[in-house]
Amino acid sequence: MKREIAPNQMKIDAPPARTSLATGQMALSNIDYDERATMRAWESFLADEPKCAGDPVPSHVRSLIHDSWYRSATGGINAQGIEAPLSSDRDAIEYLTRANAELLSAARRSFASLGQLLDGTGAMLVLADSDGVLIDAIGDKKTLHDGMDIHLAIGGKWNEDAVGTNGIGTALWTGEPTFVHAAEHFCAGIKSWTCAGAPIRDPLDGKIIGVVDLSGYSPIFRPHNTALVAATARQIEKALAEQQQEQRTRLLEAFISSAPGYRRKDGLVIVDHRGRAIFCNNVPDGEATEMMDGPMEPGRGRWLMNLPSSGSEADLARALPAHLRSCHITPLKLDGDLRGAALVFPSVPAVSSAAVVHREVNKHLQDAVAMIVGESEALHAAIDVACRVARSSSVTSLLVEGETGVGKELFARLVHAGSRRTANDPFIAMNCGAITRDLFGSELFGHVAGAFTGASREGKLGVFELAHGGVLSLDEIGELPLEIQPFLLRVLEERVVNRIGDSRGRPVDVRLVASTNRDLKHEIDAGRFRRDLYYRIGAVSITVPPLRARGEDVLLLVEHFNRQIATAAGEEPLEFSQEALDALLAYHWPGNVRELKNLIGRLHVLARGRDIGLHDLPGEIAAPSATSDDGKTLSAELPGGTLVEAERQAMKNALAAEGGNLSRVARRLGISRPTLYRKLDQYGIRRGFL
């Protein structure tokens, strides 16, 4: 016997779990819609404050609607809301129109034909962008007018985050044609409406770029409303594909006319105005791997870059991601506007994968070396050792010694750059001087959940595990507590780490770069550092020279930091007088490179003009003392005694006579500047003497 349908019930069709827009088929299953039962379910849903999306679904509510209610409730949507947010700002609407010009153009034909048919039907057809903001609306005039009451108009925002369950927002969320009828809406103020929405996908990359929706008061509901908007969405997608094909052809023609030197063996990628690849041919292996999107045409539809608005070749080159820097880029304009670019990869002889890896490693190493500014012999000697360690797979630990501020971490990064095997090899840095004594074990080796009071509930990875496959930089290793040192030694020897509270060992492949500003041999004699750990980490060591021993590197660093800071601030570099440069050269720099960088930064902020003279420098630099180490005034006469004593005093006298200008001191003594620096260190003459 056929069941009767109550007056407050209506038979409606639900869309399938997955709809195929490619074939146009829509398999519909029948369900009963009961207005009162759905309202009671909604009221009960709000009263019970659901705890999770998996709560039982009332029999009269579709799971799609129940899930959307849950998202709406937990997203903070006001269930008593009566309208969607609306932007009425004219500039915002104009920007919205320009940003969606292609979508509006593709929908124009479909909307024009359907608009005439909807007049008098009580239905309206709307077009929304990927954020659910309405950008066009046509249909029955009265319905369009009534739609203003709930902001179902251009500028209204109808995604689920703004107004909860509705045909536009829920179609965006599910990515499929969807209808929401009457009481199924989440907000009370729109429960008298019915709507059916279908997402519009970009034919090039498949991303959802908009929604077409049929809306009106609930009596307009028909089972085929969802099929109608799905068919309309397909028509718009077809029009988009035609537009894109036309643009693709025009961009290829623009490239052919602008690149007569292009050879068939060269690789070629054409990107559209959004930076997506629309044509690929002969793409080199390295770039094809990055852009691969399908077997027929590698990279087609893949986003590659942001095209700058200027369209100059220099700006385009700067916008290229790192893996595409080997190409030549040409802007492509249509009707005077930048509408794409051509990326040409000159053909090169085939190289083995091992050679490619070696080339990449060398490039990273060269970039890391370039970060260390200086030309002094002592600095180059330290860089040479670091490069040798980086290239060697047999050296697993390195000790970098040097005063505070000399740039020890740059050498750790150099080792990392030269030993990288993949682009994702980690570099983990930890300053032992910044860790409390109680946390050293946890930070180094990690811990399991509940291992000790205050331990993380989820447990924690230590820096050794985080650095697996890469480089671990332990700065100020001399601060490492004596009781932790045996555990560090065991990890370095066995290459296995045990988290605190866990007996299971975890293998680690880590290259250690330890650095310190202490004399570790003195620390060993004082009983504060283990001798066996020192010999384990110091099998190869580097001494980074202090800035006072690097001669005219001071001037190179002044120029480097001056330009770096000026560029970051968008200003012109400072101009230093010769007297100021001489004073900077003569200063002893107890804070080394860090002190110099901070000084240049301070001058950029505090100097009254762009010209820097002696008076702009701090007093300890501009007017150094001309006293000896014991505070006595220097004598101009050479004392008696040994030759060493005479030479030492002669250097002090020359320094005093030349006011600390090392170039003039070297000339006065008839020796080279490197010899002068070596003698200063040999005799222990501090720059504070100046």
TrEMBL record:
GO terms for biological process: phosphorelay signal transduction system; regulation of DNA-templated transcription. The keyword Membrane does not apply. SUPFAM superfamilies: GAF domain-like, Homeodomain-like, P-loop containing nucleoside triphosphate hydrolases. SMART domains: AAA (SM00382). One of its GO terms (molecular function) is sequence-specific DNA binding. The keyword Cytoplasm does not apply. Residues 372-605 form the Sigma-54 factor interaction domain. Pfam families: AAA_lid_14, GAF, HTH_8, Sigma54_activat. Keywords: Activator, ATP-binding, DNA-binding, Nucleotide-binding, Transcription, Transcription regulation, Two-component regulatory system. InterPro entries: AAA+_ATPase, AAA_lid_NorR, GAF, GAF-like_dom_sf, Homeodomain-like_sf, HTH_Fis, P-loop_NTPase, Sigma_54_int. PANTHER family: PROPIONATE CATABOLISM OPERON REGULATORY PROTEIN (PTHR32071:SF81), TRANSCRIPTIONAL REGULATORY PROTEIN (PTHR32071). This is Fis family transcriptional regulator. The lineage of its organism: Bacteria, Pseudomonadati, Pseudomonadota, Alphaproteobacteria, Hyphomicrobiales.
